[in-house]
Amino acid sequence: MHLSKRLFALGTTTAILISACGGTAATPSPSAAASSAAPSAAASSAAPSAAASSAAPSAAASSAAPSASAVQAPNLKIGVVTDIGTLNDKGYNEYTFKGATDGAMAIGAAAPQSIVPKDASEYAADIKQFVDQKYDIIVTVGFNLTNDTVAAAKANPKIHFVGVDQSPVCVDPQGNPDTTFACKGDAKTLLPNYTSLYFAEDQAGYLAGIVAAYASKNKSIGAIGGTTLCAPCVRYIQGYDMGAKSVTPDIKVTAAYVTNDFSAAAFNDPAGGKAFATTFISTNKPDVLFQVAGKTGNGILEAACQKGIYGIGVDVDQYVSLGAATDPTYGCIITSAEKHVESATSQAIQEIAAGTLSAGDVLFNANNDGIGVSDFHDKASMFGPEVTQALNTALAGMKSGALKTCPATGCGDAKTPLP
Amino acid sequence: MDVIPVINFLYGIPVLGLAFQLVGYLVAILPDNSPTIMVQATPLALAAMTGVICERSGVVNIGIEGTMLAAAFTAWVVGIAVNPIFGNPAPSDIFGITMPLLISLAAAVGVAVLISALHAWMSITLRADQIISGTIINIAAAGVTGYLDQLISKSSPVGAGEFAAFQPPQALVELPLVGWLLNMFLNLGPIAMSTVFLVIGLQVWLFWSRWGLRTRAVGEHPRAAETVGIDVIRLRYQNVMIGGAFAGLAGAFLSMEATNSFQIGMTIGRGFIALAAMIMGRWTPIGGFLSALLFAVFLEISQLIKIAPPTGDLGQVMTSVPAQLWDALPYLLTIVILAGAVGRSIPPAADGQPYEREAAA
């Protein structure tokens, strides 16, 4: 019996050790950034949007920073706490970290360090590691880290905190994170050292909707979101709907959400996503399908390609990130609705160095190159100059504020029916 | 023979009309999507077979989830490694089978058998707590595949592709009444299509063969089985490893047939739902399969309600309840059926109990 017990303890320990390695990047001390490994695919921000924004100044420099060249602040130490997952997740974690690296380079600071938490219970401890090591700027990635970031910002007023997609910032009158969502406090004045970068997903969706409407032959397009609780997902789809109808007013736009909760089925189930999308396609018969469902969405794109319709990716240029050029599984991607997380993070760091970054919610939209659509890649021949023209017009409208891309009431609420 | 007035009359009956509307809605929309039901049911059914074989011979295996995950990962990785060796062959006409796909499938099943052998060693030879042993497998599989995936997926490698679905002749699919059923079991890839045969074969093997009789004896009363000359330890080892092969198929299905990719944690609890299906099916292969199928049917219905909600009175009733109810529908019904309709589900008497030979004691 002794032997078996000992072996057993050994086995258990091994399992725990192995699983600890599973989130390797979560080394106990902030690990040196593997920035050299970052593939050049990052430079995906996209021909149409780039072409479209010819009237506007180029990416990073377009922000409100007073000086044209980046302020040099070589002594700033920058740390990035990502969400659960990996640093090369081809999504938020990866692009935020790349943005932080760009920003650090622009201000002449050392390359940023990163920690990838293994689970939600580690967020606060991982932020604290950077605090304890006297970092000057701490970037946290994703909505899930909001409360821990706000709490850390309150406790450490001398450190700048940048949260990606943590809006709307909701604090109580003392500046603590408000889990009741009463939001009585003014985050801007209570937490002058905390900024949440958020994006006009509806504008990105609007542009994708324009592309979808031009690609559609049978005047029926679809969109699938991960969960109704994800307001950014809903905004993407609402914008998509309005964008498509701006081109073809009588186009049929159908939308569905895989779940109504934050279970793994919403964003981490490609097999389930593919089955869901297969049913969606055979029932609603769209010929363009827009996915807003993370890894579940990769399955949705697979279903679209298998059923011979077009797919539209989300957040980053998925034609590049999924390797569609060489992998026919994803060969039907015509474009992606992008949030320029990378350029936004880089801008934020440069503005901190210049002392111009405002606290609270900072919006990234068409005006500061916060959103866009991806290059058409091998599908470019499908789209004539009128498509680029329509995208340009829409972008100009968004910049002037004349073009509305989300319903006036119920923007981000899945219960609002598509108009 | 105009049926429209009849239907309108039936739909108009208070309360009961809703039931008719529901039937009408399902008849209109479910048959078109019948193959998806089998796609959803396949990993659950195969994993439930793992549970049936293991527990029938007296070993509890809650490590199915981890075994599936490891198999899914192996199938994907081996495909990436082997595909260039064979020069990226084009898919063949039959199920899109290529040599790399077959090698990946074999590797996935092999890894699953190995992991099950580890579980068998811990729970049979070491007589460790079988729940803990299974938990170790689940945790380790999630960690190891997550770590390796992180290393490999950096360059977006292209895998060996996926098994294609068989396209049944249109005349068969369009047969009245049974066409959609035929479509459900024929418009599938090779793993999903073979599931039905595997389940029937296992049922026959378990209840009408010498091996089956011995397996059941070992699961009910190993001491008695030993006294008539059955090698309990050996039989349990064999069965746990055969069970592992089924979990391997279930995992390979996820990354080679249901999709053509691997994601960290892509099994999302299917191995545990399979255990529920096994219990609901009273530890029989066909019971487990039917339970998985039932779960998949309710899952498909709940998704159809989200994708194309019914119109009319029924639609109003359905949209007035919180949408989360429809997400929970398959799980709720599983609990209800488990608690009520199936009645008392009795596990094998020696389930989960390590066997100690008298001589060794």
Note down, in words, how this protein is organized:
The complex is a heterodimer of chains A (419) and B (361). In chain A, helix 3 (92-106) runs parallel beside helix 13 (341-354) and helix 7 packs antiparallel against helix 14. Chain A has helices spanning 2-22, 47-52, 92-106, 123-132, 146-155, 187-190, 201-215, 231-247, 264-267, 270-284, 294-306, 318-321, 341-354, 385-400; strands at residues 78-81, 113-115, 137-141, 160-164, 194-199, 220-227, 252-259, 288-292, 310-315, 333-339, 360-364, 371-373. With 419 residues, chain A is α/β, with parallel strands linked by helices. In chain A, the strands form two sheets. Chain A has a six-stranded parallel sheet with strand order 2-1-3-4-5-11, sandwiched between helices. Chain A has a six-stranded mixed sheet with strand order 7-6-8-9-10-12, with helices on both faces. Mean pLDDT of chain A is 83; it is low at 21-68. Chain A has two domains: 56-199 and 340-370, Rossmann fold (3-Layer(aba) Sandwich); 201-339 and 376-400, 3-Layer(aba) Sandwich (Rossmann fold), CATH 3.40.50. Chain B is mostly helical and 361 residues long. Chain B has a domain at 33-267. Chain B is built from 16 helices and no strands. Chain B has helices at 4-12, 16-29, 34-56, 64-82, 99-125, 130-152, 170-173, 179-186, 190-208, 210-220, 222-227, 232-258, 270-280, 285-307, 312-320, 324-339. Chain B starts with a helix and ends in a 22-residue tail after the last helix. Classes of the chains: A alpha/beta (419), B mainly alpha (361). Chains A and B meet through helix 1, strand 7, helix 10 and helix 11 of A and helix 3, helix 6, helix 14 and helix 16 of B.
